[in-house]
Design goal:
homodimer, mainly alpha, Arc Repressor Mutant, subunit A, Tetracycline Repressor, domain 2, 0% strand, DNA-binding, HTH_TetR (chains A, B), Tet_transcr_reg_TetR-rel_C_sf (chains A, B), Homeodomain-like_sf (chains A, B)
Chain lengths: 228, 228
DNA sequence: GAAAACGCTGTACCTGCGGTACGGTTTTTG
DNA sequence: CAAAAACCGTACCGCAGGTACAGCGTTTTC
Protein backbone atom coordinates (compact mmCIF):
# COMPACT_ATOMS: atom_id res chain seq x y z
CA UNK A 1 0.00 0.00 0.00
CA UNK A 2 1.40 3.36 -1.06
CA UNK A 3 1.73 6.12 1.47
CA UNK A 4 -1.20 7.99 -0.02
CA UNK A 5 -3.54 5.04 0.31
CA UNK A 6 -2.29 4.45 3.83
CA UNK A 7 -3.19 7.96 4.91
CA UNK A 8 -6.52 7.69 3.13
CA UNK A 9 -7.23 4.46 4.94
CA UNK A 10 -6.30 6.05 8.27
CA UNK A 11 -8.66 8.95 7.62
CA UNK A 12 -11.47 6.57 6.72
CA UNK A 13 -10.99 4.45 9.83
CA UNK A 14 -10.92 7.45 12.15
CA UNK A 15 -13.88 9.08 10.43
CA UNK A 16 -15.90 5.88 10.65
CA UNK A 17 -15.35 5.68 14.39
CA UNK A 18 -16.37 9.28 14.80
CA UNK A 19 -19.44 8.97 12.59
CA UNK A 20 -20.63 5.89 14.45
CA UNK A 21 -20.15 7.64 17.78
CA UNK A 22 -21.44 11.13 17.01
CA UNK A 23 -23.18 11.02 13.69
CA UNK A 24 -22.02 12.35 10.36
CA UNK A 25 -23.19 15.90 10.85
CA UNK A 26 -21.43 16.19 14.17
CA UNK A 27 -18.21 14.63 12.94
CA UNK A 28 -15.76 17.50 12.66
CA UNK A 29 -13.06 17.38 10.07
CA UNK A 30 -10.75 19.18 12.48
CA UNK A 31 -11.03 16.33 14.94
CA UNK A 32 -10.40 13.72 12.29
CA UNK A 33 -7.30 15.41 10.93
CA UNK A 34 -5.96 16.00 14.44
CA UNK A 35 -6.20 12.31 15.20
CA UNK A 36 -4.80 11.37 11.81
CA UNK A 37 -1.87 13.73 12.23
CA UNK A 38 -2.45 15.67 9.03
CA UNK A 39 -3.64 19.12 8.12
CA UNK A 40 -6.88 20.29 6.62
CA UNK A 41 -5.22 20.66 3.25
CA UNK A 42 -4.12 17.08 3.47
CA UNK A 43 -7.64 15.98 4.11
CA UNK A 44 -9.09 17.87 1.18
CA UNK A 45 -6.41 16.45 -1.02
CA UNK A 46 -7.91 13.00 -0.48
CA UNK A 47 -11.58 13.97 -0.36
CA UNK A 48 -12.94 16.99 -2.11
CA UNK A 49 -15.78 17.33 0.37
CA UNK A 50 -17.62 15.55 3.14
CA UNK A 51 -19.88 13.69 0.76
CA UNK A 52 -16.94 12.09 -0.97
CA UNK A 53 -15.70 11.01 2.44
CA UNK A 54 -19.10 9.48 3.14
CA UNK A 55 -19.06 7.60 -0.15
CA UNK A 56 -15.62 6.16 0.49
CA UNK A 57 -16.52 5.22 4.06
CA UNK A 58 -19.64 3.41 2.97
CA UNK A 59 -17.88 1.51 0.21
CA UNK A 60 -15.16 0.51 2.63
CA UNK A 61 -17.69 -0.65 5.18
CA UNK A 62 -19.77 -2.61 2.70
CA UNK A 63 -16.71 -4.32 1.32
CA UNK A 64 -15.52 -5.36 4.77
CA UNK A 65 -18.98 -6.65 5.56
CA UNK A 66 -19.10 -8.64 2.36
CA UNK A 67 -15.78 -10.24 3.19
CA UNK A 68 -17.14 -11.40 6.54
CA UNK A 69 -20.26 -12.83 4.94
CA UNK A 70 -18.25 -14.55 2.22
CA UNK A 71 -16.00 -16.00 4.86
CA UNK A 72 -18.51 -17.41 7.32
CA UNK A 73 -21.05 -18.69 4.82
CA UNK A 74 -18.31 -19.97 2.56
CA UNK A 75 -16.98 -22.00 5.46
CA UNK A 76 -20.46 -23.21 6.17
CA UNK A 77 -20.69 -24.56 2.65
CA UNK A 78 -17.34 -26.26 3.06
CA UNK A 79 -18.51 -27.99 6.21
CA UNK A 80 -21.82 -29.33 4.95
CA UNK A 81 -23.37 -30.19 1.62
CA UNK A 82 -26.85 -29.65 2.96
CA UNK A 83 -27.77 -26.00 2.31
CA UNK A 84 -29.68 -25.73 5.59
CA UNK A 85 -26.80 -27.07 7.64
CA UNK A 86 -24.35 -24.91 5.74
CA UNK A 87 -26.41 -21.81 6.48
CA UNK A 88 -26.82 -22.73 10.16
CA UNK A 89 -23.08 -23.24 10.49
CA UNK A 90 -22.51 -19.90 8.79
CA UNK A 91 -24.86 -18.19 11.23
CA UNK A 92 -23.08 -19.79 14.16
CA UNK A 93 -19.74 -18.58 12.85
CA UNK A 94 -21.20 -15.14 12.24
CA UNK A 95 -22.40 -15.01 15.84
CA UNK A 96 -18.91 -15.94 16.96
CA UNK A 97 -17.34 -13.24 14.85
CA UNK A 98 -19.75 -10.70 16.32
CA UNK A 99 -18.96 -11.89 19.84
CA UNK A 100 -15.21 -11.75 19.29
CA UNK A 101 -15.10 -8.05 18.50
CA UNK A 102 -12.98 -6.54 21.28
CA UNK A 103 -15.25 -3.65 22.26
CA UNK A 104 -18.42 -4.92 20.66
CA UNK A 105 -19.63 -4.02 17.19
CA UNK A 106 -18.78 -0.36 16.57
CA UNK A 107 -22.00 0.19 14.66
CA UNK A 108 -23.54 -0.18 11.22
CA UNK A 109 -22.77 2.61 8.79
CA UNK A 110 -25.85 1.76 6.77
CA UNK A 111 -28.04 2.42 9.78
CA UNK A 112 -26.12 5.61 10.48
CA UNK A 113 -26.72 6.80 6.93
CA UNK A 114 -30.36 5.82 7.20
CA UNK A 115 -30.82 8.04 10.22
CA UNK A 116 -29.15 10.97 8.50
CA UNK A 117 -30.44 10.63 4.97
CA UNK A 118 -30.84 14.36 4.49
CA UNK A 119 -27.13 14.82 5.01
CA UNK A 120 -26.09 12.81 1.97
CA UNK A 121 -26.50 13.06 -1.76
CA UNK A 122 -28.27 10.50 -3.92
CA UNK A 123 -25.14 8.55 -4.62
CA UNK A 124 -24.44 7.80 -0.97
CA UNK A 125 -28.00 6.69 -0.40
CA UNK A 126 -27.82 4.58 -3.54
CA UNK A 127 -24.73 2.80 -2.23
CA UNK A 128 -26.52 1.98 1.00
CA UNK A 129 -29.67 0.77 -0.73
CA UNK A 130 -27.78 -1.34 -3.26
CA UNK A 131 -25.69 -2.98 -0.57
CA UNK A 132 -28.70 -4.02 1.46
CA UNK A 133 -30.46 -5.24 -1.65
CA UNK A 134 -27.38 -7.23 -2.53
CA UNK A 135 -27.39 -8.93 0.86
CA UNK A 136 -31.07 -9.64 0.56
CA UNK A 137 -30.80 -11.35 -2.80
CA UNK A 138 -27.81 -13.27 -1.52
CA UNK A 139 -29.69 -14.62 1.47
CA UNK A 140 -32.83 -15.08 -0.57
CA UNK A 141 -30.89 -17.36 -2.94
CA UNK A 142 -29.58 -19.34 0.01
CA UNK A 143 -33.08 -19.67 1.43
CA UNK A 144 -34.40 -20.83 -1.93
CA UNK A 145 -31.80 -23.57 -1.97
CA UNK A 146 -32.80 -24.59 1.53
CA UNK A 147 -36.52 -24.50 0.82
CA UNK A 148 -36.05 -26.74 -2.19
CA UNK A 149 -34.82 -29.52 0.08
CA UNK A 150 -36.61 -28.63 3.31
CA UNK A 151 -40.20 -27.48 2.84
CA UNK A 152 -40.80 -24.63 5.30
CA UNK A 153 -43.23 -25.37 8.09
CA UNK A 154 -44.84 -21.92 8.02
CA UNK A 155 -46.00 -19.90 5.04
CA UNK A 156 -43.46 -17.12 5.45
CA UNK A 157 -42.27 -15.04 2.54
CA UNK A 158 -38.63 -15.93 1.99
CA UNK A 159 -37.83 -12.35 0.98
CA UNK A 160 -39.00 -11.32 4.40
CA UNK A 161 -36.80 -13.96 6.05
CA UNK A 162 -33.83 -12.75 4.04
CA UNK A 163 -34.65 -9.21 5.08
CA UNK A 164 -34.91 -10.38 8.66
CA UNK A 165 -31.26 -11.23 8.64
CA UNK A 166 -30.30 -7.59 8.07
CA UNK A 167 -32.93 -6.41 10.54
CA UNK A 168 -31.69 -8.70 13.29
CA UNK A 169 -28.10 -7.67 12.80
CA UNK A 170 -28.87 -3.95 12.68
CA UNK A 171 -31.28 -4.20 15.59
CA UNK A 172 -28.83 -6.34 17.53
CA UNK A 173 -26.07 -3.82 16.97
CA UNK A 174 -28.27 -1.05 18.32
CA UNK A 175 -29.19 -3.06 21.40
CA UNK A 176 -25.64 -4.17 22.14
CA UNK A 177 -24.34 -0.65 21.68
CA UNK A 178 -27.04 0.91 23.79
CA UNK A 179 -26.76 -1.60 26.61
CA UNK A 180 -22.97 -1.77 26.34
CA UNK A 181 -23.32 -5.54 26.13
CA UNK A 182 -21.65 -7.10 23.08
CA UNK A 183 -23.22 -10.48 23.73
CA UNK A 184 -26.69 -9.24 22.86
CA UNK A 185 -25.77 -9.10 19.20
CA UNK A 186 -24.41 -12.62 19.35
CA UNK A 187 -27.60 -13.84 21.00
CA UNK A 188 -29.76 -12.17 18.39
CA UNK A 189 -27.91 -13.81 15.54
CA UNK A 190 -28.30 -17.15 17.30
CA UNK A 191 -32.00 -16.47 17.85
CA UNK A 192 -32.40 -15.83 14.14
CA UNK A 193 -30.56 -19.09 13.61
CA UNK A 194 -33.12 -20.84 15.80
CA UNK A 195 -35.85 -19.28 13.70
CA UNK A 196 -34.34 -20.62 10.49
CA UNK A 197 -33.79 -24.00 12.10
CA UNK A 198 -37.38 -24.27 13.25
CA UNK A 199 -38.75 -22.96 10.00
CA UNK A 200 -37.08 -25.62 7.89
CA UNK A 201 -36.96 -28.53 10.32
CA UNK A 202 -39.80 -30.91 9.47
CA UNK A 203 -40.66 -32.29 12.90
CA UNK A 204 -39.63 -32.27 16.54
CA UNK A 205 -37.96 -35.62 15.94
CA UNK A 206 -34.53 -34.71 14.60
CA UNK A 207 -33.14 -36.70 11.68
CA UNK A 208 -29.42 -37.13 12.35
CA UNK A 209 -26.46 -37.71 10.08
CA UNK A 210 -27.03 -34.93 7.57
CA UNK A 211 -23.74 -33.28 8.29
CA UNK A 212 -21.11 -34.38 5.86
CA UNK A 213 -17.59 -34.98 7.07
CA UNK A 214 -15.73 -31.68 7.30
CA UNK A 215 -13.43 -31.45 4.31
CA UNK A 216 -11.55 -28.50 5.75
CA UNK A 217 -9.93 -28.22 9.12
CA UNK A 218 -11.57 -25.84 11.52
CA UNK A 219 -9.10 -23.54 13.23
CA UNK A 220 -9.06 -24.66 16.85
CA UNK A 221 -12.73 -23.78 17.38
CA UNK A 222 -15.00 -26.80 17.64
CA UNK A 223 -17.86 -26.18 15.27
CA UNK A 224 -20.35 -28.78 16.34
CA UNK A 225 -21.80 -27.83 19.72
CA UNK A 226 -25.29 -26.93 18.52
CA UNK A 227 -25.41 -27.74 14.87
CA UNK A 228 -28.86 -29.25 15.06
CA UNK B 1 -53.18 22.64 26.80
CA UNK B 2 -51.78 26.04 27.70
CA UNK B 3 -50.21 28.19 25.04
CA UNK B 4 -46.74 27.53 26.41
CA UNK B 5 -47.14 23.77 26.29
CA UNK B 6 -48.59 24.04 22.82
CA UNK B 7 -45.52 25.84 21.51
CA UNK B 8 -43.27 23.42 23.34
CA UNK B 9 -45.07 20.49 21.76
CA UNK B 10 -44.75 22.08 18.32
CA UNK B 11 -41.02 22.53 18.81
CA UNK B 12 -40.64 18.92 19.91
CA UNK B 13 -42.57 17.55 16.96
CA UNK B 14 -40.60 19.59 14.44
CA UNK B 15 -37.29 18.79 16.11
CA UNK B 16 -38.07 15.08 16.14
CA UNK B 17 -38.73 15.08 12.42
CA UNK B 18 -35.49 16.91 11.78
CA UNK B 19 -33.44 14.69 14.08
CA UNK B 20 -34.78 11.55 12.45
CA UNK B 21 -34.01 12.90 9.00
CA UNK B 22 -30.64 14.56 9.55
CA UNK B 23 -29.34 13.50 12.92
CA UNK B 24 -29.16 15.47 16.13
CA UNK B 25 -25.87 17.16 15.42
CA UNK B 26 -27.03 18.38 12.04
CA UNK B 27 -30.40 19.59 13.30
CA UNK B 28 -30.13 23.36 13.33
CA UNK B 29 -32.06 25.34 15.86
CA UNK B 30 -32.53 28.09 13.30
CA UNK B 31 -34.39 25.69 11.06
CA UNK B 32 -36.59 24.44 13.86
CA UNK B 33 -37.59 27.89 15.06
CA UNK B 34 -38.23 29.02 11.50
CA UNK B 35 -40.68 26.18 10.99
CA UNK B 36 -42.21 26.70 14.42
CA UNK B 37 -42.68 30.41 13.80
CA UNK B 38 -40.82 31.60 16.86
CA UNK B 39 -37.51 33.30 17.57
CA UNK B 40 -34.32 31.95 19.00
CA UNK B 41 -35.07 33.55 22.33
CA UNK B 42 -38.40 31.78 22.36
CA UNK B 43 -36.68 28.47 21.82
CA UNK B 44 -34.22 28.98 24.65
CA UNK B 45 -37.07 30.00 26.89
CA UNK B 46 -38.44 26.46 26.61
CA UNK B 47 -35.14 24.56 26.48
CA UNK B 48 -32.00 25.89 28.07
CA UNK B 49 -29.82 23.99 25.59
CA UNK B 50 -29.85 21.27 22.97
CA UNK B 51 -29.45 18.50 25.54
CA UNK B 52 -32.61 19.51 27.31
CA UNK B 53 -34.39 19.40 23.97
CA UNK B 54 -33.03 15.90 23.45
CA UNK B 55 -34.25 14.78 26.87
CA UNK B 56 -37.75 16.11 26.26
CA UNK B 57 -37.86 14.59 22.78
CA UNK B 58 -36.86 11.18 24.06
CA UNK B 59 -39.37 11.21 26.91
CA UNK B 60 -42.09 12.24 24.50
CA UNK B 61 -41.15 9.48 22.08
CA UNK B 62 -40.94 6.79 24.74
CA UNK B 63 -44.30 7.77 26.17
CA UNK B 64 -45.98 7.62 22.76
CA UNK B 65 -44.40 4.23 22.14
CA UNK B 66 -45.61 2.92 25.47
CA UNK B 67 -49.13 4.02 24.66
CA UNK B 68 -49.05 2.02 21.43
CA UNK B 69 -47.75 -1.09 23.21
CA UNK B 70 -50.31 -0.75 25.99
CA UNK B 71 -53.00 -0.40 23.40
CA UNK B 72 -52.24 -3.33 21.08
CA UNK B 73 -51.22 -5.86 23.72
CA UNK B 74 -54.03 -4.74 26.00
CA UNK B 75 -56.46 -5.46 23.19
CA UNK B 76 -54.80 -8.79 22.67
CA UNK B 77 -55.50 -9.71 26.26
CA UNK B 78 -59.08 -8.63 25.87
CA UNK B 79 -59.53 -10.89 22.87
CA UNK B 80 -58.03 -14.06 24.29
CA UNK B 81 -57.41 -15.55 27.70
CA UNK B 82 -54.56 -17.65 26.41
CA UNK B 83 -51.35 -15.61 26.84
CA UNK B 84 -49.87 -16.94 23.60
CA UNK B 85 -52.94 -16.05 21.58
CA UNK B 86 -53.17 -12.68 23.26
CA UNK B 87 -49.54 -11.92 22.37
CA UNK B 88 -49.99 -13.10 18.79
CA UNK B 89 -53.05 -10.89 18.39
CA UNK B 90 -51.12 -7.98 19.86
CA UNK B 91 -48.31 -8.54 17.36
CA UNK B 92 -50.78 -8.65 14.51
CA UNK B 93 -52.31 -5.38 15.66
CA UNK B 94 -48.86 -3.87 16.07
CA UNK B 95 -47.99 -4.84 12.52
CA UNK B 96 -51.20 -3.17 11.36
CA UNK B 97 -50.40 -0.01 13.27
CA UNK B 98 -46.94 0.06 11.69
CA UNK B 99 -48.43 -0.48 8.24
CA UNK B 100 -51.03 2.26 8.69
CA UNK B 101 -48.52 5.05 9.24
CA UNK B 102 -49.10 7.43 6.31
CA UNK B 103 -45.48 7.88 5.21
CA UNK B 104 -44.03 4.88 6.96
CA UNK B 105 -42.44 4.91 10.39
CA UNK B 106 -40.52 8.17 10.73
CA UNK B 107 -37.74 6.47 12.68
CA UNK B 108 -36.79 5.36 16.17
CA UNK B 109 -35.35 8.06 18.37
CA UNK B 110 -33.66 5.43 20.53
CA UNK B 111 -31.72 4.20 17.54
CA UNK B 112 -30.91 7.77 16.58
CA UNK B 113 -29.55 8.44 20.06
CA UNK B 114 -27.61 5.21 19.95
CA UNK B 115 -25.83 6.26 16.78
CA UNK B 116 -24.96 9.65 18.26
CA UNK B 117 -24.16 8.75 21.85
CA UNK B 118 -21.27 11.15 22.09
CA UNK B 119 -23.63 14.03 21.43
CA UNK B 120 -25.67 13.51 24.58
CA UNK B 121 -25.09 13.64 28.31
CA UNK B 122 -25.53 10.72 30.68
CA UNK B 123 -29.12 11.54 31.42
CA UNK B 124 -30.25 11.26 27.83
CA UNK B 125 -28.49 7.94 27.41
CA UNK B 126 -30.00 6.76 30.68
CA UNK B 127 -33.49 7.55 29.43
CA UNK B 128 -32.86 5.51 26.29
CA UNK B 129 -31.39 2.57 28.19
CA UNK B 130 -34.14 2.52 30.80
CA UNK B 131 -36.87 2.62 28.18
CA UNK B 132 -35.49 -0.34 26.30
CA UNK B 133 -34.95 -2.26 29.51
CA UNK B 134 -38.55 -1.50 30.45
CA UNK B 135 -39.80 -2.95 27.19
CA UNK B 136 -37.61 -5.99 27.63
CA UNK B 137 -38.92 -6.83 31.11
CA UNK B 138 -42.43 -6.23 29.87
CA UNK B 139 -42.09 -8.69 27.01
CA UNK B 140 -40.08 -11.06 29.16
CA UNK B 141 -42.99 -11.21 31.62
CA UNK B 142 -45.40 -11.92 28.77
CA UNK B 143 -43.13 -14.66 27.45
CA UNK B 144 -42.88 -16.21 30.92
CA UNK B 145 -46.65 -16.37 31.07
CA UNK B 146 -46.73 -18.01 27.66
CA UNK B 147 -43.96 -20.48 28.45
CA UNK B 148 -45.78 -21.58 31.60
CA UNK B 149 -48.63 -22.87 29.47
CA UNK B 150 -46.80 -23.68 26.24
CA UNK B 151 -43.41 -25.30 26.71
CA UNK B 152 -41.06 -23.82 24.10
CA UNK B 153 -39.88 -26.21 21.43
CA UNK B 154 -36.35 -24.83 21.33
CA UNK B 155 -34.05 -23.99 24.20
CA UNK B 156 -33.98 -20.25 23.56
CA UNK B 157 -33.33 -17.74 26.30
CA UNK B 158 -36.55 -15.83 26.80
CA UNK B 159 -34.63 -12.64 27.55
CA UNK B 160 -33.16 -12.93 24.09
CA UNK B 161 -36.60 -13.42 22.58
CA UNK B 162 -37.87 -10.36 24.43
CA UNK B 163 -34.86 -8.43 23.18
CA UNK B 164 -35.56 -9.70 19.68
CA UNK B 165 -38.81 -7.76 19.65
CA UNK B 166 -36.96 -4.46 19.98
CA UNK B 167 -34.32 -5.60 17.51
CA UNK B 168 -36.85 -6.56 14.88
CA UNK B 169 -38.73 -3.29 15.20
CA UNK B 170 -35.61 -1.15 15.10
CA UNK B 171 -34.12 -3.19 12.28
CA UNK B 172 -37.40 -3.16 10.42
CA UNK B 173 -37.65 0.60 10.74
CA UNK B 174 -34.18 0.98 9.27
CA UNK B 175 -34.99 -1.31 6.35
CA UNK B 176 -38.33 0.31 5.59
CA UNK B 177 -36.82 3.79 5.79
CA UNK B 178 -33.84 2.87 3.66
CA UNK B 179 -35.87 1.10 0.99
CA UNK B 180 -38.70 3.60 1.20
CA UNK B 181 -41.06 0.67 1.64
CA UNK B 182 -43.25 0.90 4.76
CA UNK B 183 -44.49 -2.66 4.37
CA UNK B 184 -41.10 -4.11 5.25
CA UNK B 185 -41.56 -3.14 8.86
CA UNK B 186 -44.99 -4.75 8.90
CA UNK B 187 -43.56 -7.93 7.42
CA UNK B 188 -40.79 -8.06 9.97
CA UNK B 189 -43.19 -7.78 12.88
CA UNK B 190 -45.25 -10.56 11.33
CA UNK B 191 -42.14 -12.67 10.84
CA UNK B 192 -41.31 -12.24 14.50
CA UNK B 193 -44.87 -13.28 15.20
CA UNK B 194 -44.28 -16.46 13.19
CA UNK B 195 -41.18 -17.09 15.25
CA UNK B 196 -43.12 -16.80 18.51
CA UNK B 197 -45.87 -18.96 17.10
CA UNK B 198 -43.50 -21.70 16.06
CA UNK B 199 -41.52 -21.49 19.26
CA UNK B 200 -44.51 -22.12 21.48
CA UNK B 201 -46.63 -24.34 19.26
CA UNK B 202 -46.17 -27.95 20.36
CA UNK B 203 -46.37 -29.80 17.05
CA UNK B 204 -47.10 -29.38 13.33
CA UNK B 205 -50.54 -30.80 14.02
CA UNK B 206 -52.43 -27.79 15.29
CA UNK B 207 -54.61 -28.32 18.33
CA UNK B 208 -57.70 -26.23 17.77
CA UNK B 209 -60.09 -24.58 20.18
CA UNK B 210 -57.60 -22.75 22.35
CA UNK B 211 -58.98 -19.37 21.47
CA UNK B 212 -61.56 -18.33 23.97
CA UNK B 213 -64.64 -16.58 22.73
CA UNK B 214 -63.89 -12.88 22.32
CA UNK B 215 -65.50 -11.08 25.23
CA UNK B 216 -65.09 -7.70 23.59
CA UNK B 217 -66.31 -6.62 20.20
CA UNK B 218 -63.62 -5.88 17.65
CA UNK B 219 -64.02 -2.50 16.04
CA UNK B 220 -64.76 -3.21 12.39
CA UNK B 221 -61.38 -4.89 11.79
CA UNK B 222 -61.61 -8.66 11.56
CA UNK B 223 -58.95 -9.99 13.87
CA UNK B 224 -58.89 -13.64 12.97
CA UNK B 225 -57.31 -14.08 9.53
CA UNK B 226 -54.11 -15.75 10.72
CA UNK B 227 -54.50 -16.26 14.40
CA UNK B 228 -53.05 -19.73 14.37
C1' DG C 1 -57.00 46.22 40.06
C1' DA C 2 -52.12 45.92 40.87
C1' DA C 3 -48.38 42.76 40.87
C1' DA C 4 -46.24 38.86 39.43
C1' DA C 5 -45.47 35.26 36.39
C1' DC C 6 -45.67 33.61 31.70
C1' DG C 7 -44.44 33.53 26.96
C1' DC C 8 -42.27 35.28 24.24
C1' DT C 9 -39.46 39.25 20.77
C1' DG C 10 -35.11 41.84 19.33
C1' DT C 11 -30.45 42.87 19.25
C1' DA C 12 -25.87 42.16 19.75
C1' DC C 13 -22.09 39.34 20.11
C1' DC C 14 -18.65 35.38 20.58
C1' DT C 15 -16.94 30.88 19.17
C1' DG C 16 -16.11 27.03 16.27
C1' DC C 17 -16.67 24.47 12.13
C1' DG C 18 -17.35 23.34 7.13
C1' DG C 19 -15.55 24.70 3.13
C1' DT C 20 -12.68 27.41 -0.45
C1' DA C 21 -8.52 29.09 -2.47
C1' DC C 22 -3.96 28.85 -3.48
C1' DG C 23 0.89 28.98 -3.14
C1' DG C 24 4.69 26.44 -1.31
C1' DT C 25 7.23 22.13 0.16
C1' DT C 26 8.51 17.49 0.79
C1' DT C 27 8.36 12.72 -0.63
C1' DT C 28 7.94 9.16 -3.73
C1' DT C 29 8.45 7.14 -8.11
C1' DG C 30 9.62 6.29 -12.97
C1' DC D 1 16.89 14.06 -12.20
C1' DA D 2 12.32 15.45 -13.15
C1' DA D 3 7.68 14.94 -12.56
C1' DA D 4 3.98 13.52 -10.20
C1' DA D 5 2.06 12.55 -5.65
C1' DA D 6 1.29 13.81 -1.11
C1' DC D 7 1.03 16.83 1.54
C1' DC D 8 1.73 21.86 4.63
C1' DG D 9 0.41 26.94 5.84
C1' DT D 10 -2.26 30.63 5.74
C1' DA D 11 -5.93 33.39 5.04
C1' DC D 12 -10.57 33.86 4.53
C1' DC D 13 -15.95 33.37 4.25
C1' DG D 14 -20.49 32.19 6.06
C1' DC D 15 -23.34 29.79 9.01
C1' DA D 16 -24.83 27.77 13.26
C1' DG D 17 -24.83 27.01 18.35
C1' DG D 18 -24.98 29.44 22.21
C1' DT D 19 -24.96 33.50 25.65
C1' DA D 20 -26.62 37.76 27.58
C1' DC D 21 -29.88 40.91 28.41
C1' DA D 22 -33.44 44.35 27.85
C1' DG D 23 -38.15 44.68 26.95
C1' DC D 24 -43.21 43.87 26.03
C1' DG D 25 -47.95 42.06 25.78
C1' DT D 26 -50.94 38.70 28.01
C1' DT D 27 -52.54 35.93 31.55
C1' DT D 28 -52.81 34.50 36.19
C1' DT D 29 -52.91 35.37 41.05
C1' DC D 30 -53.43 37.65 45.31
Amino acid sequence: MGKGLETRERILAIAEMSVLAKGFGATSIDEVIAEAGITKSGFFYHFKDKNELARAMLLRYVEANNRVFDDVFGRGRQLSDDPLQAFLIGLKLLAEVMADLPHGHPGCLIASVCYQERMFDREVRAIAVNSVQGWNVRFRATLDEIAAQHPPREAVDLDTVADMMSCIVDGGIIMSKLMADPRRLEHQVLAFRSFVKMLFSPSPAVPAGQVSAPATRVDSSHVDPHLL
